[in-house]
């Protein structure tokens, strides 16, 4: 019979002793997961937004560079054709080109240019967040054409799409962290059980020893052969539990 | 080999046993799925394929009756690259034969075919039959680019003809420039936009019709003359709309005015779509007149909603709109249709098809009556949706334009003699200095004049047709 597996031994498991340990493990994992999630959300959000703005600026600059000759030739149909091609790129929601005097030379708005855009500074090139009624939320960047003397290109990127990308990236990261959390918790349970098993055996032995004194059964002494602290403790308990004469004999025989 | 040839001939000839198929149209599908031969070959003396040489030789061997039949009726499969043939001249067409603007491509084609049928019946041009190779682009830029490449890769195609629309043509022009060494030219696109009239692409196209700049300037000037100074624009939000918008802007600027208000719609919008938002935007600017730069479905929807919302001011359309189709939509299901069209005024780039005092119009009447060309069918041009029958218009400004386009290109090819080459096209066009097309204005081309006609006509609805507008003040005056 294996230690701690005798009669009634299954009733004597170490539950309370590691409860706090388990709770500590869970808490630690949760804190790590939450901290990593928060950090990655912040990083992903910031980096995606920066990349988004950077792409928008590249597109705006590209259009601005391509527009010079077209504008100087007064060929607004070709200019419109140019921006129509760019607006097919996912996440670009609108493009408009203003002249050096602020006149709207070409745009992609339907059915009309929103009042908020009409009221904005047509020469501004810094990224600006816009919330346009009926259209959504956007980050708008600008790029001057011929250093601004020929006009300015404005590109509006859909924040909804950006938000979707951020949420998707965050979702993937959080899913990974959750998997790590679950695996970690399961591993901690297994490890705690592994650590508590010798104590369970000891507890079982002590219980059997107590029942042996009552004459019910003889204890399974397998735990006494262990060469670890549990074995030492089992031997000490048996010594302590033995009648005084037995103790003296044992002490004499040892001496 | 003779057996193989016979088999192939039967296969290709079979469609011509069906009398409903137009013999003068090479039946092709769109570029989708069409393989591409690398490179572009010249029309004559270059790129004659082994297949065409074998075919010519066999035709000679087989004797006159069969050879004659083959040469007159050869039809090519969907992705066949046609050989150069001495008895025909192939014009490549990419146009809207499907979608919301298909009436434009279809009527332009019908008008041209009425003339070409007549020419071919009389022996062709210098002994060559005029044949159209049709590809459908649905009035969409990307298919048009693909179609243009496919047409230019087909060594049988001599020149490009009758393209429809600004957004399509604007995107096709760079393809012409890319293959400029092949000397392909685009003739008489159905658009008045500037890109094919100005550098850097103007040298690859020849126009017949007046430009949108001329049309919009005429409309603006007439409105200003009668005191309607606040002119707004409703336009298709693409290269076509922008071209017209720019024309209006420029014309107003010449009088010290600016555009009073503007609203847009998306290309492909159907008549059933509400244009309330666009009308309300313009209403808020209190315009005296609106110039629409669009296609018939959207412009008819706008005019309908303007009437419903009480915007009772002149609503002008430029020639591209397709006047008869627009009028047809606006008159549909109305007990008093005239009340809904009272404010319409359309500019045209050809004279009224009712003006039989003009020789070209009389010819047009006769040819349309005699041949009544059917629209291209599903079997002829791909992507015409089943269950979407097109009802032809007996006479229209668009088909008249197609007719005069065909007449003019026939004259140019005729001037190139028995052995036309692409390298001689430009010279042949520049020889046209005072040609009487029969429309009341003589056609003139030159190195700095790549547009043959300059006149703009103004028309208003009268019942179910458009008639000339003589008195702007009486019709649209403010008093």
Report the count of strand segments of chain A. Answer: 5
Q: How large is the radius of gyration of chain A?
A: 38 Å
Order of strands across the main sheet of chain A: 2-1-5-4-3
Largest sheet of chain A: 5 strands, antiparallel
Structural class given helices, strands, pairing of chain A? alpha+beta
The whole-number mean of residue pLDDT values of chain A reads: 84
Number of strands of chain B: 15
**CATH class division of the largest domain in chain B:** Alpha Beta
CATH topology of the largest domain in chain B: Rossmann fold
Tally of individual domains of chain B: 3
The average pLDDT of chain B is 84
Using the alpha-carbon principal axes, give the shape of chain A: rod-shaped
The CATH superfamily label of the largest domain in chain B reads: Response regulator
User: Strand portion of chain A, in percent?
Assistant: 5-15%
Strand order in the sheet with the most strands of chain B: 8-7-9-10-11-14-15
Termini separation of chain A: 32 Å
How is this structure best described in words?
The complex is a heterodimer of chains A (255) and B (479). With 255 residues, chain A is an alpha+beta fold. Helices cover 58% and strands 13% of the residues of chain A. The relative contact order of chain A is 0.15. The radius of gyration of chain B is 23 Å and the shape is globular. In chain B, helix 4 (102-121) crosses helix 14 (397-415). In chain B, helix 4 (102-121) links the parallel strand 2 and strand 3 (129-136). Chain B has helices at residues 2-13, 50-62, 64-73, 102-121, 141-153, 166-178, 212-225, 239-253, 276-283, 296-308, 323-331, 337-341, 359-371, 397-415, 425-430, 472-476, and strands at residues 25-26, 88-95, 129-136, 157-161, 186-187, 205-206, 231-236, 262-265, 289-293, 315-317, 344-348, 435-436, 442-443, 457-462, 465-468. Chain B folds into 3 domains: 1-79, no CATH class; 88-209 and 353-448, Response regulator (Rossmann fold); 212-348 and 458-476, Response regulator (Rossmann fold), CATH 3.40.50. Chain B contains 16 helices and 15 strands. The interface between A and B is medium-sized, with 19 and 29 residues.
């Amino acid at each position: 019979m294996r230690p701690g597996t005798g009669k009634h031994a299954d009733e004597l498991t170490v539950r309370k002793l590691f409860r706090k340990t388990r709770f500590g493990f869970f808490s630690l994992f949760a804190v790590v997961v939450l901290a990593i999630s928060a950090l990655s959300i912040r990083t992903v959000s910031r980096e995606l937004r920066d990349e988004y703005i950077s792409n928008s600026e590249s597109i705006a600059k590209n259009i601005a560079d391509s527009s010079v000759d077209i504008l100087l030739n007064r060929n607004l149909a070709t200019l419109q054709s140019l921006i129509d091609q760019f607006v097919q790129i996912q996440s670009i929601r609108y493009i408009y080109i203003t002249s050096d005097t602020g006149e709207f030379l070409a745009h992609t708005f339907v059915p009309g240019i929103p009042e908020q855009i009409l009221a904005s500074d047509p020469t501004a090139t810094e990224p600006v967040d816009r919330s346009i009624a009926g259209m959504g939320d956007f980050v708008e960047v600008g790029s001057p054409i011929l250093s601004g003397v020929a006009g300015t290109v404005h590109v509006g990127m859909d924040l909804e799409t950006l938000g979707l990308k951020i949420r998707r990236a965050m979702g993937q990261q959080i899913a990974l962290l959750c998997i790590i959390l679950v695996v970690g918790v399961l591993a901690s349970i297994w490890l705690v059980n592994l650590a508590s098993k010798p104590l369970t055996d000891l507890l079982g032995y002590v219980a059997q020893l107590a029942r042996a004194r009552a004459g019910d059964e003889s204890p399974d002494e397998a735990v006494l052969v262990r060469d670890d602290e549990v074995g030492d403790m089992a031997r000490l308990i048996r010594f302590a539990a033995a009648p005084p004469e037995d103790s003296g004999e044992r002490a004499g025989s040892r001496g | 080999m003779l057996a193989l040839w016979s088999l192939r001939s039967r296969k290709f000839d079979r469609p011509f046993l069906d009398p409903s198929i137009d013999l003068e149209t090479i039946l092709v599908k769109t570029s989708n799925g069409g393989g591409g031969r690398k490179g572009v070959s010249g029309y004559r003396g270059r790129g004659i394929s082994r297949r065409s040489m074998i075919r010519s030789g066999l035709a000679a061997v087989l004797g006159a009756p069969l050879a004659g039949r083959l040469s007159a009726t050869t039809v090519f499969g969907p992705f066949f690259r046609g050989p150069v043939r001495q008895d025909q001249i192939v014009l490549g067409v990419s146009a809207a034969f499907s979608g919301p603007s298909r009436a434009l491509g279809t009527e332009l084609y019908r008008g041209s075919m009425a003339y070409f049928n007549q020419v071919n019946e009389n022996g062709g041009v210098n002994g060559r039959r005029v044949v159209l190779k049709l590809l459908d682009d649905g009035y969409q830029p990307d298919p048009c680019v693909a179609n243009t490449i496919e047409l230019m890769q087909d060594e049988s195609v001599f020149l490009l003809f009758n393209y429809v629309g600004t957004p399509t043509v604007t995107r096709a022009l760079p393809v012409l420039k890319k293959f400029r060494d092949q000397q392909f030219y685009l003739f008489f696109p159905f658009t008045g936009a500037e890109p094919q009239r100005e550098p850097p692409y103007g040298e690859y196209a020849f126009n017949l019709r007046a430009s949108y700049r001329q049309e919009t300037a005429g409309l603006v000037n007439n409105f200003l003359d009668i005191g309607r100074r606040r002119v707004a624009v409703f336009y298709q939000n693409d290269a076509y709309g922008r071209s017209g918008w720019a024309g209006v802007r420029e014309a107003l600027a010449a009088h010290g005015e600016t555009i009073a208000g503007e609203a847009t719609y998306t290309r492909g919008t159907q008549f059933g779509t509400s244009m309330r938002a666009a009308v309300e935007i313009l209403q808020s600017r209190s315009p005296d007149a609106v110039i629409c730069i669009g296609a018939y479905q959207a412009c008819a929807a706008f005019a309908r909603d303007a009437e419903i919302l009480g915007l009772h001011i002149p609503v002008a359309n430029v020639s591209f709109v397709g006047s008869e189709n627009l009028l047809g939509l606006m008159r549909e299901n109305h007990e008093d249709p005239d009340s809904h069209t009272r404010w319409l005024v359309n500019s045209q780039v050809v004279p009224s098809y009712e003006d039989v005092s003009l020789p070209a119009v009389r010819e047009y009447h006769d040819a349309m009556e005699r041949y009544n060309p059917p629209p291209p069918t599903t079997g002829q041009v791909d992507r015409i949706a089943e269950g979407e029958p097109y009802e032809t218009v007996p006479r229209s400004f668009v088909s008249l334009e197609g007719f005069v386009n065909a007449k003019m290109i026939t004259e140019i090819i005729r001037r190139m003699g028995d052995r036309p080459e692409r390298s001689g096209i430009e010279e042949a066009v520049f020889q046209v200095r005072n040609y009487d097309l029969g429309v009341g204005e003589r056609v003139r081309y030159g190195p700095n004049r790549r547009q043959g006609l300059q006149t703009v006509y103004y028309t208003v609805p009268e019942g179910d047709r458009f008639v000339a507008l003589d008195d702007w003040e009486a019709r649209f005056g403010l008093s």
